Amino acid sequence: MFKRYGFCDADIFRLIKRYPRVLSCNPDKTLLPRLEFFYSKGMSNTDIAHILCGCPLLLGRSLQNHVTPNFNLLSDLLLSDNKVISAARNDPFILFRHGDRYLKPFINLLQDHGVPRTQIASLICNWPRSIGVCLNHFRKCVEEVREKGYDPSSAEFIRAVVVLSQLGKSGWERKAVVYKSWGWSEKDILVAFRKNPWSLMTSESKIMAVMKFFVEKMDCESLYLAKHPNLLMYSLEKRLIPRALVLHFLLRNKLIDKKPNLNTLFVYSEKLFLEKFVNCFDEAPQLLKLYRDQSDLAK
């Protein structure tokens, strides 16, 4: 039956390993109705396999009293069955947990703080695991984000809550120690967080490496990264170093008069970077080889 719905041998093995009781389930009374329900909601065979392998306990939940009401609750909130599927792919357990006891308290909390329905839907669809944490922890994160000056009606508010809920107080403190070792103040850290909350999710070793690169190789002040924290998100080996080599070649050979805005240099798409800093020069073949060789080393 599972193979009829696109499950491969590896999926079936994983499902049985995680939920051995599936072997004793009645195929027609237990398995088929659930598979047909998910299929009727627009799930592809791949979606069904991914969700059930991720949360095989769904097979033990009542379809009528639990799975269907949960799906419908999410669909009413997200205004789309497809968005429910996206949320379930990101966290299959969102269909397993009791909606009234698990989901509604988080929704009510966000609404009480002035977060609009569209942003709550965005949180559930894109980062459902963020509401899989303890409600008290989540409440503290929401309150802390408000204290940091975020507007609850903005998309940035939700992103900041997601980061804090995943990072925790100890995680924030570990990152702060690294940033402060480069001369940042608590205010500088907040500036970076306001501009790009995801920058606080970067590992301590990555922060150190990128800071060292910009300060020692690019002759920047460390606070430049506080103003442009998006630069902390890029791969050192695949993006920053290859582009820096091209820039140094251009400056060394006096092909450009001055150093361009570094944020622009590193943020440009691949196509635009090649157009602005490689292909427009007579030395394009040499520049391209330099760039490609360094990029290939990172693969």
Describe the structure.
The protein is an all-alpha fold and 299 residues long. The chain has a domain at 234-299. The protein is 66% helix and 0% strand. Helix 9 (155-181) packs antiparallel against helix 10. The longest helix has 27 residues, at 155-181. Keywords: Transcription, Transcription regulation, Transcription termination, Transit peptide. InterPro entries: MTERF, MTERF_sf. Belongs to the mTERF family. One of its GO terms (molecular function) is nucleic acid binding.
Give the arrangement of secondary structure elements.
Elements: H1 9-18, H2 27-40, H3 45-54, H4 63-78, H5 81-90, H6 99-112, H7 117-126, H8 135-147, H9 155-181, H10 186-195, H11 204-217, H12 224-227, H13 236-252, H14 262-267, H15 270-277, H16 284-297
Helix pairs in contact: 1-3, 4-5, 6-8, 7-9, 8-9, 9-10, 13-16
